[in-house]
Inverse folding.
């Protein structure tokens, strides 16, 4: 083996020297480079110019690229639909991250990981919710229930969905076909809740459940059971908290559903500047959290307002005791 290595190394060195001195291939004929190897028939060498070399190289590369494309396409057809790996060690179909630009973010623990400012929406977006004529394409999340709280301001907090009365253990169902992005417990707000991502561009939230029976990455159909009603989290009674969001920003469910009839209004919905008009109003409001030593006169001077205006905004009297930690609207 060492002998072969020595001959091979010598051959390479001699070949390089001959090439540098311009010796023709014909002068190499008849030489026995490996005396211990049986002589083979000499191979004729032909010099090719740069143009011919480039043509052959391009032809070879084109063939390799075509072969690679065919193999990958055939492999994909044989293997079935495309899957992608997302956070949490989950494999989901590529459609669930490619259908909309903001779907590229997958977070199984945060309701709004997208951080998209709704007021920067420049052009209207038309969402195809479903084929309204197809009774299996959508459902109302629960059997018709009384609306106990609507979308909008609730004291000093904004309520981003609607609350519907139900009994503990009542079935809660998926509003549209989708995939479970979040199924977990939230101590400070939703309690046990489920967040579904839908191919129509929306995400829906079902909060205060007594129990959920789905897991992150699981696909569901409209009407599939996802959990049971309850009063977990920040809740004072059995009800379903239901939200509709686009790019993480809430939209009033009353714009999608006739809440009195528990029916979908239309198979389409256009998102425009009027959809998020409430955000402008929210940003105009200013609140102050009461600290030790605060009193209405001091708070009024700090925010350049009056005691009368603060009392009117918060429906309190000038003699009302200010509890530490409470939030007062000052503007």
């Amino acid at each position: 083996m060492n002998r072969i290595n020595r001959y091979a190394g010598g051959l390479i060195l001699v070949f390089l020297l001959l090439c540098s001195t311009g010796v023709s291939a014909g002068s190499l004929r008849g030489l026995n480079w490996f005396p211990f190897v049986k002589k083979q028939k000499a191979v004729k060498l032909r010099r090719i110019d740069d143009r011919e070399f480039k043509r052959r190289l391009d032809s070879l590369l084109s063939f390799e690229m075509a072969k690679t494309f065919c193999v990958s396409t055939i492999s994909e057809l044989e293997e079935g639909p495309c899957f992608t790996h997302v956070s949490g060690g989950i494999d989901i179909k590529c459609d669930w991250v490619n259908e909309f630009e903001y779907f590229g973010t997958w977070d199984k623990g945060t309701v709004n990981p997208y951080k998209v400012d709704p007021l920067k929406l420049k052009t209207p977006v038309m969402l195809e919710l479903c084929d309204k004529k197809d009774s299996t394409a959508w459902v109302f999340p629960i059997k018709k229930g009384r609306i106990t709280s609507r979308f909008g301001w609730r004291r000093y907090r904004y309520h981003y969905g609607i609350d519907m009365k139900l009994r503990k253990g009542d079935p809660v169902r998926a509003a549209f076909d989708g995939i479970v992005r979040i199924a977990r417990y939230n101590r400070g707000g939703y309690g046990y809740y489920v967040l579904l991502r839908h191919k129509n561009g929306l995400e829906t939230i079902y909060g205060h459940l007594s129990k959920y029976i789905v897991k992150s990455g699981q696909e569901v159909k409209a009407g599939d059971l996802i959990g049971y009603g309850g009063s977990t989290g920040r809740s004072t009674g059995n009800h379903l908290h239901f939200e509709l969001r686009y790019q993480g920003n809430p939209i009033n469910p009353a714009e999608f559903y006739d809440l009195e009839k528990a029916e979908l209004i239309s198979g389409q919905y256009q998102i425009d500047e009027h959809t998020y008009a409430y955000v402008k109003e929210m940003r105009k409001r200013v609140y102050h959290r009461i600290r030790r030593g605060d009193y209405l006169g001091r708070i009024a001077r700090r925010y350049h307002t009056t005691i009368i205006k603060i009392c009117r905004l918060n429906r309190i009297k000038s003699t009302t005791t200010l509890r530490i930690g409470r939030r007062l609207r000052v503007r």
Summary: Residues 63-78 have pLDDT under 50 and may be disordered. The chain has six helices and 21 strands.
